[in-house]
Amino acid sequence: MVRQPHFRRALLALVLLVTPWMAWAAFPSTARLADTDLVLNGQGVRYRVVFKVYEMALYTGKPVTTAEQLLALPGPKRLSFVALRELPGTDLGLAFLKGLSSNASKEQVQKHVVSTNRLIEIFSGKPKLMPGETFAMEFVPGKGTQFFIQDQPQGAPVGDAEFFNMVLRIWVGPSPADHQLRDRLLGKTD
Fold it and tell me: Is 90 inside a domain boundary?
């Protein structure tokens, strides 16, 4: 039993190695936004190759199962995220820009360049998000999209419903960030 300290160190190393792979989030089944009760439409993990990047949840006024239903649904919506590994802010901002550009026309991207730049600035302005840290995007009709990091609002809301739909398309559009994640956000578990 002299080797027990080595076993403990090996076990600790294994725990530290596996921790980024573990899911952190326990998203609530409902959220309240702008005097509206939202339901958890779906949640899932964003993978990049085999690595878990973040877990996210989509909240809507009523359940939807297709991207078309989601994009046509009026009212407030929320995207909640929990980082599952260290995420450099610049990488996250660039990934969002790539997702916007892959799922919207050049005209739409150009029309919403101010809001898009704000999205990129917010996440690129944070050196990194650490595992367990949160970020969110909330849309309220008539007010726009509010971005949050660690539950703290990041500036004033920007954009309109068309801009938020562009943001949603990053995950549910024709070229989603992750096909399995898209299905989970839309409530499909198989």
Answer: yes
Q: What is the pTM of this model?
A: 0.84
Domain enclosing residue 90, as ranges: 4-185
Question: What residues contact 6, with CB distance under 8 A and at least 6 apart?
Answer: none
CB 33 within 8 A of CB 59: yes
SS3 84: coil
- 52: domain CATH number is 3.50.70.10
Distance (Å, whole) CA 43 – CA 66? 14
pLDDT tens, residue by residue, 90-145: 888 889 999 999 999 999 999 999 999 998 888 888 889 999 999 999 999 999 99
What pLDDT shows up at residue 190?
Answer: 63
Q: Cα separation of 134 and 158, whole Å?
A: 20
Q: Is residue 190 part of a domain?
A: no
What is the number of structural domains in the chain? 1
Give the HSE-up count for residue 16: Cα atoms under 13 Å, Cβ half-sphere: 6
